[in-house]
Every structure is written in structure tokens, then in C-alpha cells.
Amino acid sequence: MGFHIASLMAEQAQEVVVVDQSAEALESVRRTLDVKTLEGNAATPGVLREAEAHRADLIIAVTSNDETNLITCFIAKEMGAAITAARIRNPEYSGYFVAPAKSPQAARKVIRPKHLGVDLFINPEVEAAREIMSILASFYPTPVENFMGGRVQVREFRVAKEALLNKPLRELALPKPCIVAAIARSGEVSLPRANEVLKPGDHIYLVAESSSMDELGRIFDQPQRPARSVVILGGENVGFFLAQGLEGRGVSVKIIEASVSRCRLIASKLAHSVVVQCETTDRDLFVEEGVPKADAFVAATGNDELNILHALLAKNLGVPWSLALVNKPAYIPLAKEVGVDVAASPLLLTANKIVRFALHGGAVTSALLGGKEVQVIEFVTAPTAQVVGHPVDEANWPREIVAAAVGHNDTVVIPPRNIIVQPGDHVLIISPPSAVPAVEKLFK
Question: Among 348, 386, 350, which residue's Cα sits nearest to residue 369?
């Protein structure tokens, strides 16, 4: 995770220092990324001082140990770091704690997370569970990102209808105004050209008003009803958090888990879900436990390969939606190629959230499409911004970027083209990460 985040920051021309106790890990970083490295324990003042934490705009602690990440952020904040982010798996750390009072009449002290020196708590498992819940509640088994207060969305759709194949984008008859932000093909996400031809297996990213997305989605894929029954393979954190969330929405949930002790634990904490203990999973078990009759199947074990294989098996048994938890980003295109509907990556979701904290130049939020090839950023124009007073088409944009939408008061224009940018407008930009610094300058 640290490597992936460092690569994103480096591509945006950020000054990055990577700290790790493993010389081997740092050597891998040095061979691949243009960043500084420092060997040592980041949870110590001396190492943080050497890394110049006191002048850092952002400290990101993403080791596999919650306590190390907390201590690192606390010390860095005390030294003067502007913003700190910690990868935390134990949800109790991100809540507040009420200390006991000295007497019944005395005020009780509330210890809040920021007292620990952490500005942003990131739980990869919670992020993954939220993403999966959002997908299962939709008509399409693909991720969605919200901008401009939810008025504009960027949504991924499978190009599933044969009538669209081998047809250039410029010939698509779309019923609502939209922009094709990117195309995902064979594991690569890229900005499309007007003469780009859609091919089997393509996924397309659209920018449109939220109210138009369902109608646009019908052009590319067959809508399905939101999932009302879900089978989850794996009762570790992601599976457990997902079951909790789905229970709260009235969804019927069944969890299949190998560990007896884990089954007992999650069964005691889940009010309505069915928990099945089974060490071996095969076709017969899936049929016996009703997987073919479920609306969705989620493979959420700690093994990427098994998750992909089990999600594919469920799909072959007739499950409308199959989702696999994938920690290695390189496996995501593989999962989609073999027929898995959604491959959710806690690593990429966490990196996406952290990157939003590193935005500058009037940017208020962003999203990464695919791994890190394309970034969508929402800017708010300051009165002094260079783009103010110019039509969108005549602004001095870098060649590879696309201005996809402009929001002015309660009005959204897609595509904006001749709209003159005014102070306070929200402008949605599609850009490769390498061009982001140049775009930011136009909004300062």
C-alpha cells in the first residue's frame, strides 16, 4: 500500500520520502520510483526528524500495525506535520472514548480521535465493505463516484450489448448529455479518442448528471434489481463489516467461514445473518447452501486467487452478480477477464481516499479510475484563477486533459465547451496524474 501511494504522489510531482525498516523493500522502491528513501522505524522521533516530518504537508502511516501508525502520526503531528493519515484496522481507535468521572457530578472527559494526532483514519476493510454495499444497492454491478454534492457522477459500465461492439464512440446515440471519461481494456485504463472503437470486454466510464445515469447505463448493460440476498465467502473483517451493513438494509445474508472460532464470534455479533462453518468449498457446497439462488456472491477471504476462482464458480452457477476481494491490483484485470463482475481492492480504495488529502490549487475532491492511470478532480475556481473569465474550450489546458463539467449555483453543464468560467464555479477535470500539477496552477 505504501508503495502504491508513493507512486501516485511521485507521478504528481510531489516531494516524497518513503520510510521502512526493510532494506529490501526500500531497494525495490528506489529501483522503481523517483522518491527519497530512509531506512528505520518511523515511530521514533529521530527517524521522523531525519525524514523532515516537521515540514511535511502530509504524513501517511500505512504499516500493518495499528499502534505503530498511531504513534507515528502522533509524534509527527507534535513535530509540526500539517496533516496526518493512519491506516487503522481496529474500528475502536477511530471512535471517541469517554473517560470515567471522579464523581457522579463531575464532567466526564471525552477523548476524541484527533487527540491522538490523526486527521484521517483509514480502515481498508471498512472502505471495501462500503464500496461493495454501494454496488449491491445499485442497478449495475460497477463502482460510482460522486461530485458536486452528488449532482454529478462518474460511473463505470460494462459494454455488454453486442450492438455497441466495433462502433466508434462518436457514433453512439446517447439519450442524455455525458462525457466518456475513460475506457478500461485488458487491464489498462486510458483517455479515449473520438474514433475509439468499443471492443468485447470493455468497461466505459461516463460523466453525467446523477439523474441521468440509470438511463445511460441501459445503453451499455442490462440493469438488475438491487441485491436482496447475498452469500459471503469469508468471515474476516471485510465479510463481517459487509454483513453488518447489509443487515442494516434488510438484506438476507449468509456467511460461509472455515474457522470455528471465527464463526462463533461473528454469529454472536450478527443479529440476522446465517453463519455456516465449512473448511472445504466446492460446487456441491455452493449448491447446498443456496448460492445459485442468491442475488449476489461475494468472495472475501484473505486469498486473492481463491476469491477469483470462487467468484467465477458462483457466476457459472447462475448468480447474477459475483464480486471478489482482490488485494493485488495486478489481479483486478485478470478477475474481470475471466468473468468476475467486480474486483474490489482495499488497497486502491484506501489510496484513492489518501490522494484526496494531497490535493492543492482549489481542488476539493478526486477519484482514481482503474489503478492510477486516470484521475477525475473537482476544482472550485478562486477569483484569481487563470481560467476565470474564459470559455472552457479556450482555457489554456494541458493537451491531455478534458474539462467534463461545470457547476454554477444549481446548474450543471455537461459538456461545458463555451461556458465562461466564473469565480466559485465547480469544474470537473479528467486528467492523467502527470498533468495534475499543471492543471492545479490554472486554479490558483
Answer: 348
